[in-house]
UniProtKB/TrEMBL annotation:
<dbReference type="Pfam" id="PF04107">
    <property type="entry name" value="GCS2"/>
</dbReference>
<dbReference type="GO" id="GO:0016879">
    <property type="term" value="F:ligase activity, forming carbon-nitrogen bonds"/>
</dbReference>
<dbReference type="InterPro" id="IPR006336">
    <property type="entry name" value="GCS2"/>
</dbReference>
<dbReference type="InterPro" id="IPR050141">
    <property type="entry name" value="GCL_type2/YbdK_subfam"/>
</dbReference>
<dbReference type="InterPro" id="IPR014746">
    <property type="entry name" value="Gln_synth/guanido_kin_cat_dom"/>
</dbReference>
<protein>
    <recommendedName>
        <fullName>Glutamate--cysteine ligase</fullName>
    </recommendedName>
</protein>
Length: 493
């Protein structure tokens, strides 16, 4: 697309009066609440799904860009950065066969994209952050390079989709992390991060508030297991020594980056830990009343076209999804968005099973953790993002006892997840094998983020500069992933 055409589209999105769009969203939201009450969004069985983002590197493990459109490959979509790609699984029954199908689909998507889009010496990386900049520029230069056309700022390395460029026009577009601060002009700063996003369909849609409440209570403990973005590209760091940077590192920087880049300092937060909901109407209202950006009027819309478009910029870390079934059956599901990309495919599938197993069992047994205050659930979430498995987390176990001991918390959490898997028909041995890599993380306190920090610190101790320590750590991460991604788990590292 020509730059002038893209700038015109972005300007149109940013200056369009949202009144008619918001009116249509309200009309569709009203229909949606009634349809859910009538059972139109109930599902015959629980299903799961997965969105999987990754980035591409060259033979030197430096970031590089994709050569052409990713939409030509089944199950692949553009992401905000030209170095990124997103894979999507088809919905699958929550069963052993269903999880195995998701794993097979993801393996096939990775292989197809690698064969059709990449040069032989390039590879896709599953990770939380990239840290080795392109060979010709620093990470800061790559993420902040831009042009200005008719007063519209366009990020040079952002994909040519107008809504991505428009999303950052009213955002803060800054990084504010310990020892890493930067003021940018576009939302491309978000493309430091890549993630995995498990989905879980609620069979009886009217029960969404119960499942959503449990999803918020497990968000912190699950996030603590999956942290994988403690290091920035070195060019983003302030002028402080390497030890200070490693000592102050957050275990999951992608949480803070997405919030500080996309939230408007003068308005309500769009990226946030969500509130509890008391009804389906509350969930629908939270989406409909979210501040509107990139409004668009559609010709020949279906029942939820404008509402769904609004939902695309509703960036809560756990969010309800109302799918009218244009590409399948109508359903209501919960999307779990905090998790970074993981070292191996097996670890990723383990998180899909853990999330679905927990929601299945906690709701079935009316687990007492539902009584954990929302403020404590929110505190758990941000503590996990900061400290990973070293965080002080709060929990209520199956007996109703308040728990702060990490081992006791995870013993209860994994017992419930295993019970949920078995309730869904999983063989006990399969359930044990599925959860084993995550139980090992809890037992040893070894997460991908901790592994990276240990690697970087070892290199600093040997006399390496911070820049070299970060680069060598990332190269070793990519080498280990290349050897284990499809066939092993992070525990083998």
């Amino acid at each position: 697309m020509k730059e002038t055409e893209l700038a015109s589209q972005v300007d149109s999105l940013c200056t369009r009066d949202p009144t008619e769009f918001d009116h249509r969203v309200r009309e569709e939201a009203s229909w949606l609440v009634s349809a859910v009450e009538d059972g139109a969004f109930d599902s015959e069985l629980a299903t799961t799904g997965l969105e999987y983002e990754c980035y591409v590197v060259d033979r030197e493990n430096a970031l590089t860009t994709l050569p052409r459109c990713t939409d030509e490959i089944l199950g692949c979509e553009k992401e905000i950065g030209r170095h990124q790609i997103e894979f999507q699984s088809s919905p699958q029954p929550f069963s052993a066969a269903g999880l195995q199908t998701i794993e097979s689909e993801m393996r096939a998507r990775f292989e197809a994209a690698s064969e059709e889009l990449l040069d032989p010496e390039e590879r896709l990386v599953s990770d939380g952050f990239w840290t080795i900049s392109p060979q010709t520029e620093t990470g800061v230069e790559y993420l902040t390079d831009h042009t200005t056309t008719d007063d519209t700022v366009l990020a040079t390395n952002m994909c040519d989709t107008a809504r991505y460029h428009a999303q950052g026009q009213s955002a803060a577009t800054r990084i504010d992390a310990p020892n890493a601060t930067y003021e940018g002009k576009t939302a491309l700063l978000n493309s430091l991060t890549t993630s995995i996003q498990p989905h879980f369909v609620v069979e009886q849609a009217s029960e969404l508030p119960t499942y959503f409440r449990y999803a918020l209570r497990v968000a912190g403990p699950i996030l603590a297991l999956g942290v994988n973005s403690p290091l920035f590209p070195p060019a983003f760091y302030d002028d402080v020594d390497g030890e200070t940077i490693l000592d102050g590192a957050r275990m999951e920087n992608r949480i803070g980056v997405f919030e500080s880049v996309m939230n408007d300092e003068d308005g309500p937060a769009k990226v946030a830990f969500p509130e509890d909901i008391e009804s389906v109407g509350d969930a629908v209202e939270s989406i409909a009343s979210d501040p509107t950006i990139v409004p668009r009027l559609f010709e020949d819309p279906s029942a939820l076209t404008h509402f769904t478009h609004k939902h695309g910029c509703y960036w809560r870390w756990v969010r309800p999804v109302f799918d009218e079934g244009v590409m399948g059956e109508p359903n209501v599901r919960i999307e779990f968005r905090p998790l970074a990309g993981q070292p191996t495919l097996g670890d990723t599938i383990a998180f899909v099973g853990l999330f679905a197993g927990l929601l299945t069992d906690l709701a079935r047994r009316e687990h007492p953790v539902s009584r954990l205050d929302w403020a404590d659930a929110r505190r758990n979430f941000y503590a996990a993002a900061t400290d990973g498995l070293s965080a002080d987390l709060r929990w209520i176990d199956r007996s109703g006892d308040r728990v702060t001991d990490t081992d006791a918390l995870y013993a209860d959490l994994f017992a419930c997840a295993r019970a949920g898997l078995e309730t869904a028909g999983f063989d006990a041995d399969y359930a044990d094998d599925l959860l084993a890599p995550l139980e090992s993380r809890a037992r040893t306190r070894q997460t991908p983020a901790r592994w990276k920090l240990d690697q970087a610190r070892s290199r600093l101790d040997e006399g390496a500069s911070l820049d070299r320590a970060v680069r060598e750590t990332q190269r070793r991460y990519i080498r280990r992933q290349a050897a284990t991604f499809e066939t092993d788990r992070f525990t083998a590292w």
